[in-house]
């Protein structure tokens, strides 16, 4: 992801030290995004809680979201119904309403200054004969109040509904607020990357990139994409989706919207800015990122006037049955917990994950435990998505290996140096930046992202800058020429 978004612009925060010794703790939380920080908040009164992040807390995907706290979530309910049944979809809806309640309670209780605003949420379609009737049907059957409506913007819209009791906020200010609240109770380490995990004598031993270890009774993995393959084999249980967003000056308006069509348009306002996002696509070995980003910019330019100030792109993770994974990893590892695959609704699901994970750690019953369990029941839809997703990843992996002499953009190319495939980027001054072209995570070959000027893994989404520094996992290693991995 680009390091900047509208949210990262405004923040002036306190930073925390890197871990520089071996330590022991009771509960280790790895990854301080919306999920990890909420877990830390709910566990702050437990003994011996440590939170580590590979960068600065909050600067992962959460700082690149649109920051809507809404339960009107595109086609999520009808999708879940297809993969499970009406009752499961209804329970998911209840969980999202509860997540919003938890967020509001936290913000009020701790007086978190995060520009929270009550905001009508619109769901709309741009397609002539699509309609929203199955969404209306679901909302009616669950006694959810909604109104038939018109979209309050001059963009194509054939049908729209709205709900009223939803919110928007500044996601990074929310995280910074929580960081302040927990700082005296939870030991925080930044720039501390977990690279490996061992299990011995009922303890987890986490190895960090700088060579130190953290020995913990319980471990919570909230790293967005988990950094390990075993245990749990999570990479085959989730998929990735790439989205784009931009912000520009605009008068503030009190609504947010998303459509249900193939091409997603998501809109909200923040102070005197509009944020437009969407145009998501799956990863593959043949993406022209600039072209994809331009689709968003062209859409924006057609209907709005001011020049975009920030444009950014980022991934989110999806599960094969549309429900997040918030769970103990398995029976053999009841003290290893994970929250991932929020299906692009991680503001609500991350906040909820914080509560469920804390309840699991403290053996407190949570009514959503079974809903988000990693080994919940299979279904035809889930199996179909599992096969399609893993087939695509396999095809992408092979595709990148076959196309060895690919030329990407402005003379950026892959070549062989000392028997290793390398990526070569030539900058504006004509200087060459050479990196390894193999992702340390699963050994996929990398493609060049011409929108952000990064090397990206089209299989599992790891990203590296032109000098080979890791930006985003699941890889935990760089791809510098001299890197051993
Ligand atoms: C364009 C876009 C718009 C979106 N808009 C919305 C919205 O309006 N509403 C909504 O509900 N959801 C939205 N989402 C989804 C939401 O942003 C994500 O689901 C959510 O932010 C994911 O949070 P997270 O805590 O799982 O991950 P992150 O925020 O990425 O946090 C993970 C943290 O773990 C750290 N980490 C990673 N690896 C390691 C390691 N090995 N060791 C230590 N630390 C590590 C990272 O540095 C990071 O800080 C949107 C997503 C996108 C892409």
Written description of the protein model:
The protein has 485 residues and is of the alpha+beta class. The chain folds into 3 domains: 6-64 and 173-234 and 323-378, FAD/NAD(P)-binding domain; 113-169 and 237-319, D-Amino Acid Oxidase, subunit A, domain 2 (D-Amino Acid Oxidase, Chain A, domain 2, 2-Layer Sandwich); 403-472, Rieske Iron-sulfur Protein. The chain contains 9 helices and 24 strands. It has helices at 6-9, 34-43, 76-83, 86-109, 133-141, 171-182, 289-303, 346-361, 380-402; strands at 23-30, 49-52, 68-69, 117-125, 147-149, 159-168, 187-189, 194-200, 203-208, 213-221, 238-249, 255-259, 265-270, 273-282, 310-319, 325-330, 333-340, 413-417, 420-426, 432-436, 447-449, 454-456, 463-465, 470-472. Strands 3, 4, 5, 6, 11, 12, 13, 14 and 15 form a 9-stranded mixed sheet that branches. Strands 1, 2, 7, 8, 9, 10, 16 and 17 form an 8-stranded mixed sheet that branches. β19 and β20 (432-436) form a beta hairpin. α2 packs parallel to α6 (171-182), α2 (34-43) packs parallel to α8 (346-361) and α3 packs across α4 (86-109). Flavin-adenine dinucleotide (FAD) is lined by residues 30-36, 52-55, 59-62, 64-68, 193-194, 222-224, 227, 243, 245, 277, 314, 316, 342, 344-348, 350, 473, 476.
């Amino acid at each position: 992801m680009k390091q900047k978004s509208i949210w990262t612009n405004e923040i002036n925060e306190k930073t925390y030290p890197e871990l520089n010794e071996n330590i022991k703790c009771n509960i280790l939380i790895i990854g301080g995004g919306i999920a990890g920080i909420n877990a830390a908040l709910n566990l702050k009164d437990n003994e011996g809680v440590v939170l580590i992040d590979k960068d600065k807390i909050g600067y992962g995907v959460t700082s690149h979201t649109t920051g809507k706290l809404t339960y009107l979530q595109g086609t999520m309910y009808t999708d879940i119904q297809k993969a499970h049944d009406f009752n499961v979809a209804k329970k998911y809806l209840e969980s999202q309403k509860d997540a919003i309640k938890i967020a509001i309670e936290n913000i009020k209780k701790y007086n978190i200054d995060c520009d929270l605003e009550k905001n009508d949420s619109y769901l709309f379609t741009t397609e002539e004969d699509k309609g929203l009737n199955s969404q209306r049907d679901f909302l009616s059957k669950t006694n959810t109040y909604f109104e038939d409506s018109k979209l309050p913007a001059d963009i194509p819209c054939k049908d729209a509904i709205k709900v009223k009791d939803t919110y928007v906020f500044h996601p990074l200010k929310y995280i910074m607020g929580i960081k302040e609240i927990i700082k005296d109770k939870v030991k925080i380490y930044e720039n501390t990357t977990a690279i490996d995990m061992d299990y011995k004598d009922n303890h987890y031993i986490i190895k960090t990139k700088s060579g130190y270890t953290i020995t913990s009774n319980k471990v919570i993995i909230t790293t967005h994409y988990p950094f390990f393959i075993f245990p749990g084999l999570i990479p085959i249980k989730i998929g990735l989706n790439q989205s784009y967003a931009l912000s520009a000056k605009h008068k503030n308006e009190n609504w947010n919207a998303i459509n249900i069509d193939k091409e997603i348009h998501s809109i909200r306002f923040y102070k005197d800015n509009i944020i437009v996002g969407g145009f998501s696509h799956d990863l593959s070995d043949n993406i022209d990122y600039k072209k994809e980003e331009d689709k968003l910019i062209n859409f924006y330019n057609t209907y709005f006037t001011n020049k975009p100030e920030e444009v950014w792109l980022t991934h989110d993770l999806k599960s094969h049955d549309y429900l997040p994974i918030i769970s103990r990893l398995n029976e053999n590892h009841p003290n290893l917990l994970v929250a991932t695959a929020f299906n692009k609704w991680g503001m609500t699901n991350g906040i909820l994950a914080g509560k469920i994970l804390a309840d699991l750690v403290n053996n407190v019953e949570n009514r959503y435990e079974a809903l988000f369990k990693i080994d919940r029941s299979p279904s035809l839809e889930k199996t179909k998505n599992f096969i399609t997703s893993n087939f695509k990843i396999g095809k992408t992996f092979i595709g990148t290996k076959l196309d060895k002499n690919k030329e990407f953009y402005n003379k950026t190319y892959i070549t062989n140096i000392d028997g290793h495939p390398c990526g070569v980027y030539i900058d504006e001054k004509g200087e060459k930046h050479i990196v390894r072209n193999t992702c340390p995570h699963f050994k996929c070959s990398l493609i060049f992202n011409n929108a952000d000027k990064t090397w990206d893994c089209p299989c599992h989404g790891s990203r590296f800058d032109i000098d080979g520094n890791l930006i985003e996992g699941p890889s935990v290693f760089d791809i510098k020429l001299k890197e051993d991995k």
